[in-house]
User: Fold Glycosyltransferase involved in cell wall bisynthesis from Tindallia magadiensis.
Amino acid sequence: MEKVAMFVFNNFTNDSRVLKEAKTLIDHSYQVDLYAVLDDKTLPEEIVEGIHVKRMLRDPWHMRFLKKFREAKKPKQQSQATTTSPTPAKPTNKKIAALKRKYTLLRKKMAAKKLVMGKKTKAKVYEFMKINLLKFHRPFIFWDYYVKCTKANEQQQYAIYHAHDLNTLPVAYWLAKKHNGKLIYDAHEFYVERNTKIKSRTWKFILTRIESYLIRKCHAVISVNESLAEEYTRRYGVKKPYVIMNAPSQNMASSTNGEEELRSHLPISPSQKVLLYCGSITFNRGLEKLIESLVYTKNYYLVMMGYGTEEYKNSLLEIAEEQGVKDRFSFFGPVAPHEVTSYAATADLGVAPIENACLSYYYCSPNKVFEYINAKIPVITSNFPEMERVVQEYEIGCTFNPEDAQDIAKAAETVLENEALRTKMAHNTAAASKAYNWENEADKLIKIYQDVRDQHEH
Assistant:
């Protein structure tokens, strides 16, 4: 039984792609150890569906240093013995006694001032160090993970080291080189062109140089779709990566019951048609325009099913109220991965908006599209290459400009206001599901591993 080490920089509780890949390998007689990140919601070590999960405590040196500095003992006040003069003998001269009292008072004031200045200085030093150290927070937490994974592998050897995304590739490369193993790079997205709030040209340059060097050291590179695979080849001049799409299992196809009926959980009238957005509720997903699109429709109800911060969700509720559509909009969930398609099947239309905020988004093929297909409902998506490819190839919906709320509404009406067309598109999802499912992708993954094993034997 060949041993595989997988590396992922999250707590491995909701990463469906990594879970599916690891389970596929186990089903084909591989032993999989997965190195993830420990947090307050997870265990340091456990077995998850046959996968030996080992989580590394996220405790980088700069956070430990700042904590110790902040919690250091406060300067002790000088004792009375050191801040006052000995009780003088009965003065023989009133002037001398007065001078001694002034001297004693002055010493007390100086000691108090020194204590206050010490606290202020320490606070300023702490803030200075905090501001400057946190500029390098991301590199430091990655380095902390790399060091701990390396220590955990001192007595371990694996045949194959599988890095999920660029943030784990350095440690997988180092360990593969150290233990003479094979290296697989699984790029879930174009990491150097991903969706981030803070744009740093310097950090992007460094990441690009790292990826450019390490990608050439891999025995296999995997991407999530054809467009991203071609972009890797164009940018780095490497052999075109293999493609493993993030499609759900056919076994997760919809089978609804009363408990998984969206209408039974939300204030949706029988006459309203349900638009479903499924996935992360976060910025640059086109959700603001999606809410605004309800203004241009009469009887549609929008449900957003997934996880989002309360702050961001509240901002969306404010938009809904400003646009006068708050009564036709709700959040729901999140629900367990195996329940997604069952809930989705009770919607009338699946929506996959995403903004052209970065190259990784422009070339994305989001899992939600395949979940809608598995749920057997028509789909409308942003008019970007990979999503458009799927929608048009199987005629399961239509596309829209994610920056134009009216165009989103028009796409929804094109499908929902023509019952014959909607029925045809829903029917076509069956053929799409046969093409885009994890069972097909699993076969590709095993073939990749066989190719890598053959390289190893040579």
Notes: Residues 78-85 have pLDDT under 50 and may be disordered. The chain is about 50% helix and 15% strand.
